[in-house]
Amino acid sequence: MASKSSSSDILASSSDIVENFSRIYDNEEQKPPASVLHSVVDDIVVRSVPTARYTDQSYHERERTELWGNVWQVVCWGGDIPEAGDIKLYDNAGISAIVVRQEDGSL
């Protein structure tokens, strides 16, 4: 796969990805199937993300108005509030919710 990259691009080698993935399982008793640890993808160009995406207020405002209201939000796992009356508060970018475990077990 031939592709041009600029100085802001990071070239991710498929062998590096497989090697890093393999390290996750170094100390595990059960290993994944060999096919999972086999490099089958070409090297890819990954664009770096400018730091401003995490620090600039205008990016935050754009995510708040155009993203967060249009995607599923994960408030908690059901096991986080196991008993009737348990609550979980959620607040993200102006979206607020209270999740309550009901007497019948529903949320």
Short description:
The protein has three helices and four strands; from the N terminus they run E-H-E-H-H-E-E. Strand 3 (87-92) and strand 4 form a beta hairpin.
Describe the model.
With 107 residues, this protein is of the alpha+beta class. The protein contains 3 helices and 4 strands. It has a two-stranded antiparallel sheet. A two-stranded antiparallel sheet has the order 3-4. A hairpin with a 2-residue loop joins β3 and β4. It is flat and about 50 Å long. The chain starts with 8 loop residues before the first strand and ends in a 7-residue tail after the last strand.
Total number of beta strands: 4
Task: Assign the structural class, choosing from mainly alpha, mainly beta, alpha/beta, alpha+beta, or little secondary structure.
Answer: alpha+beta
In quaternary terms, these chains amount to single chain
Mean pLDDT: 81
Tell me the distance between the termini. Answer: 49 Å
For the biggest sheet, the summary is: 2 strands, antiparallel
Number of helices: 3
Taken from the alpha-carbon principal axes, the silhouette is: flat
Query: Strand fraction band?
Result: 15-25%
Listing every helix as H and every strand as E from the N terminus to the C terminus, the arrangement reads EHEHHEE
- What is the helix content? 10-25%
**Order of neighbouring strands in the sheet with most strands:** 1-2
Rg, Cα atoms, Å: 21 Å
- Spans of at least 5 consecutive residues whose pLDDT stays below 50 are none
